[in-house]
Amino acid sequence: MSALLELRGLNVFYGAFHSVHGVDISCREGEVLSLIGANGAGKSSTLRAIIGQVPRVTGEIRFAGEDISRRTTPERISSGIALVPEGRQLFPNLTIEENLKIGGYTGQKGSIGLAEVYEIFPALSERRKQLARLLSGGQQQMVAIGRALMMNPRLLLCDEISLGLSPKIIAEIYEVLPRIRDHGVSMILVEQDIARALSASDHVACMLEGRISLAGPSSEVSREQIAASYFGE
Amino acid sequence: MTGLLDQIIQAVLLGGLYAIFALGLAISVGVLKFINVAHGDLIVAMSFLMLTLTNSLGLPVPVALIVLIPVGAGVGWLLQFGLFQRAASQNELQIILITFGLSVIIQNGLLGLYGADTRKVTAGGIEMASINLFGNINAGVLPLIIFVTACLLIVGLEQILYRTGLGIQIRAIADAPAAAKLVGLRLAGLMAVAMAMVGITEAVSGGLMSIWTNFDPSSGSSRLLIAFEVVVLAGLGSFWGVLVGGIIIALAQTFGGMIDSAFQMLAGHIVFLVLFLFRPQGLFPKT
Amino acid sequence: MTSGFVIFGRLALAAGLICLCIAPFAFTPAVLVLLTQALSMLSLAMLWNLVAGYGNVMVIGQHAFVGIGAYAFYGFAMLAGLHMAVALPAAMAVTLAFGSMVYAMLYRLRTAYLAVGSWVVAETLMLVASRLPGFGGGSGASLPANLLRTFGARVPERLSTIYIMVLAVAVLTFVLIWALMRSRIGLGLAALRDNEEGAAVAGVNTRLVRAACFILAAPMVGLVGVLVTLQEGRISPVASFSMLDWTIYVLFIVVIGGLGSLEGPIIGTLVFFLLRELLQDYGTLYLITLGAISILIVLFAPTGLWGLARRKLGRDLIPLTHDPKTGGAS
Ligand SMILES: Nc1ncnc2c1ncn2[C@@H]1O[C@H](COP(=O)(O)OP(=O)(O)OP(=O)(O)O)[C@@H](O)[C@H]1O
Ligand SMILES: [Mg+2]
Predict the structure, then answer these.
(1) What CATH number is attached to the domain comprising A153?
(2) Helices B239-259 and B263-278 sit at what angle, rounded to 10 degrees?
(3) Residue B94's domain spans which residues?
(4) Ligand 1 close to Cβ of residue A37 (< 6 A)
(5) CATH code assigned at C240
(6) Cβ of residue B185 closer than 8 Å to a chain A Cβ
(7) What is the pTM for the complete model shown?
(8) Looking at the complex, does the CB of residue A199 fall below 8 Å from at least one CB of chain B?
(9) pLDDT tens digits, one per residue of A17-39
(10) What are C189-248's pLDDT values in tens digits?
(11) Among partner residues B33, B98, B229, which is closest to C298 by beta-carbon distance?
(12) For residue A93, what is the DSSP state?
């Protein structure tokens, strides 16, 4: 079975700064891949490269068999990739419902609409008219995920969705991931919480200083291996 | 006493025209995040176009007004797409410099095409007509039409920005441009659409102004300053605030003009500066 | 190779300065009048560049201070009957006071608001000036012949005296800005020009530095206003507060020459007067061309003609110790 997303020799540059060095990653249809690594390892840069929001990349980004590395962000989104960005990046002065609708405008039409998002996150449906900036951190994260789901992606990129949230809220958010998967969505999860990343994913890839230092099925890699590749010991 | 009430009603209606001047600027400040120094000159250019349509081509005034609207939208769209968008990667200072150059080009272009004379469009008597409001208070039909147009434009803009998908996207790029890029909104296209909306308000302003007041190629600057004062007074919270701001400036000018005709413009500026000192965030700021 | 050009450039600057110094003896009155205008514009351009280019304060109301200088001078010299030597500094003090007030009022506005806000203030002051009793109302007032005669009995002598004053002010302005740029404030200014947030993070007191630029420039602009009044022999709201002459042209000069450099205003003034001599017969086309050139420059060469040349040369003609790009060239 061929990969849904395949990165071959991906490099990311910010001006003269070389942030991601020749990364190869692949993610199959229906799979959840977790991408872990220390701060500054290049995880967010990799996700932003996939969605087309870094100043300069080289290498190949293949999605559903096609090289998309020359396409614009809106084109990539309408071909089926969605990003839940680091730090949520909501529209603070728009209501929850408007934030969600934005995803509907930029993505594909499909089985997920407002009703489905409200069903997945009932907490949001009670506050449709509330401004996003007045929400709690956990609710904001739900809006960010909901907005990406509204794009009806085949591949969902989640950048540290547990950042700054209480363990209870993190558990709540992670409980809905299997339901998203039921809609046939593949996922790449960037996580700091290694245990959570391993339990939620089929495969894991670890980044160290812009390179992949370890990759394998989540059930097979050991904690020692991860610790070693995480800190480069 | 009725004289005073008459003046106040006139001023309120004039406030409607000022609000239309300012609506476009409010959109460009709120959404596109820059002030187009050529805003007033574009309005005056539309007035001259109105003159050509009615005088040279002989179109009836209402038809000419309707022709003006798509022209305004097209000009706005083209300016944003062809000029301002190219400067978007640079800083605010540079965009101001560009619109400044544009202002000089438009003013002198109009001067070259039409000469320096003061002009006015005649609309077949409607500018003279007035109706009795109550008692012995009358109001001009044209000022009333303009005021109602201002209200309709405000309602229309609010409907577009708050009720349509296009409007939600435009508000989103105004709210958080970085986030808008990450979720795949097409910034350049949406900004051009916003500028086309600004262009429509310029067309309506220019068209109506050409019937109500005199204009010449250098009138743009004073229109820009009025629009600016109204936008700052209003704050960026609501388009209805723009109408209130327009009425305040018009009232100030009217009372100034009652003291001495030379105080008309000065009174508007002074009231603006004083209100601004006490309420820099405007009367209806964004909450 | 490149240093050859730099030396050539410096020699040209020096030769230009020498020419300017001997001009009263070498040129006809017509040329002298042109040079007087050019040097007045140069001073204004350097000052606007200080405020907008270095201080990042985008004002388009600079003409207000030209007008205030002119009117204050007329008030002190004519209405109060003070001697020139008193009236001149007094006029500068008045512009300084106005500069501080205007800045206090506008400083918290963001860029675009401040720009148009300063224009509103200038417009207001112009309207006030046209209503001031004793200043001739809307049509203005002439300086009496006996005052002008203190600058020379006959017209050519008077031209020379005024020319020398204008030259002195231009040189003074240049030296002041140069000294400012070499001082600790200049370090902050250079940082501010290159990256405002970065400068703030690096501990530069950006608010103080910007205020200093704006407030220091005001009395110098007022001084130019006095000199312009002496050249014209009269004050009037329209001419003394002319936005076209004292702001729009100045802005074009700086943008074309190069915003945020010492050389920019000099090159811009040269180009501006060259274009004026070539195109002024074409009326509106002249201003349209200027507008178009400045738009093209902002779009495609935002550092102006000097920025283009500098990329070839690799260093400034006028060395500044604190320029972070050359890291101490003097
Ligand atoms: N916009 C940018 N400009 C310059 N350098 C950047 C930029 N964004 C990221 N970098 C650099 O690229 C490297 C990788 O950053 P990235 O954000 O991808 O790391 P990360 O793995 O997501 O880290 P974290 O866990 O802290 O989010 C870092 O050294 C960072 O400083
Ligand atoms: Mg990250």
Answers:
(1) 3.40.50.300
(2) 130
(3) 2-219
(4) yes
(5) 1.10.3470
(6) yes
(7) 0.92
(8) no
(9) 999 999 999 999 999 999 999 89
(10) 777 777 766 766 666 677 888 888 899 999 999 999 999 999 999 999 999 999 999 999
(11) B98
(12) T
